[in-house]
Amino acid sequence: MAPYFSIILPTYNRGERIDMAIQSVLDQTYSNWELIIVDDGSTDNTKEVCLQYQEPRISYVYQDNAERSAARNKGIALSRGVYVGFLDSDDV
What is the fold, at CATH topology level, of the domain defined by 5-86? Predict the structure, then answer.
């Protein structure tokens, strides 16, 4: 079944706080969603933090640094939901 919501989370070097953003999605009571994390060329531990989540609704994609708009567009291209929303990597 396709998710109802696709949540796009573009990120760059947010290893120290991206876990809070991811957890805020996991804490929602509504469960028909997918979270697409698009790492825009991070050089810190962002990838390791993201891959700790063994949740089938979460996907992690790395791309060479191309700025936030490109990361958002990549997430949209990968989304399968009826609706698309954005979450910044430093928000909860």
Answer: Spore Coat Polysaccharide Biosynthesis Protein SpsA; Chain A (3.90.550)
How far apart, in whole angstroms, are the C-alpha atoms of residue 18 and residue 46?
A: 7
How many CA atoms lie less than 13 Å away from 62 in the CB half-sphere? 12
Q: Residue 42: which of 75, 74, 72, 12 has the closest Cα?
A: 12
Q: What's the rounded mean pLDDT across residues 49-62?
A: 97
CB 18 within 8 A of CB 53: no
Can you give the residue ranges of every domain in the chain? 5-86
Question: Taking the CB of residue 73, how many other CB atoms lie within 10 A of it?
Answer: 14
Single-letter residue type at 28: Q
Kindly tell me if the per-residue pLDDT of 1 is higher than 90.
no
Q: Give the sheet arrangement for strand 83-86, strand by strand.
A: 58-63, 33-40, 5-11, 83-86
pTM of the model: 0.96
